[in-house]
């Protein structure tokens, strides 16, 4: 998996600081949520043509690192489910 997380931007002026794919207002949590729901990369790319496969991989890498960091907490066990419904947590 591409670990190129420089594709992720956090800026308090864009989406209130929610991590987004750089150059867009597409939250990482939305991408991760779609993957968690079973959407393929091709389906996500069809719905969001401004994204690249590298953007999707970077979002997944960020999610993976968040889960690993918080794996010893209740948040770690439910992060992927909650991220889609509560993007401000991401």
Automatic annotation (TrEMBL):
Signal peptide: none annotated. It comes from the Bacteria. Pfam families: DUF433 (PF04255). Transmembrane segments: none annotated. InterPro entries: DUF433, Homeodomain-like_sf, WH-like_DNA-bd_sf. This is DUF433 domain-containing protein. It comes from Phytoactinopolyspora halophila.
């Amino acid at each position: 998996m591409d670990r190129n997380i420089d594709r992720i931007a956090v800026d308090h002026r864009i989406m209130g600081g929610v991590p987004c794919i750089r150059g867009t207002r597409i939250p990482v949590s939305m991408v991760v949520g779609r993957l968690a729901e079973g959407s393929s990369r091709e389906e996500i790319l069809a719905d969001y043509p401004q994204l690249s496969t590298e953007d999707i991989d970077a979002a997944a890498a960020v999610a993976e690192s968040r889960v690993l960091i918080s794996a010893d907490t209740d948040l770690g066990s439910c992060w992927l489910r909650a991220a889609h419904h509560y993007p401000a947590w991401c």
